[in-house]
Amino acid sequence: KQLQADTDKLVYNLGQLYIQKQKLSDTEDGLLEAMKAIENREEVLGKELSAKYGIGTVNIEAGMFTPQAS
Fold it and tell me: What is the pTM of this model?
């Protein structure tokens, strides 16, 4: 009887672990998609700024654009 109870508890715990792993995987997938979306937005913004101001560097903290020397 104790063996059956131990087995039941182990099976339950393994099931809980599987569910947690699946949720973690789903969360990871969502975060990776969000990261790709941000990277795409950065790329689009970079191209827009380059088209408007030319090639250079941006200091976001100071709000300054420094054109690249030719």
Answer: 0.66
Contacts of 58 (CB under 8 A, 6+ apart): 49, 64, 65, 66
Reported as half-sphere exposure (CB side, CA atoms, 13 A), residue 47 has a value of 5
Q: What are phi and psi of 69, to 5 degrees?
A: -70, 135
What CA–CA distance (Å, rounded) separates 61 from 10?
Answer: 54
* pLDDT digit string (tens) for the chain, length 70 residues: 999 999 999 999 999 999 999 999 999 999 999 999 999 998 998 888 888 888 888 888 898 888 887 6
Question: Which residues lie below 8 Å from residue 47, measured CB to CB, with a gap of 6+?
Answer: none
> CA angle, corner 19, sides to 15 and 24, nearest 5?
145
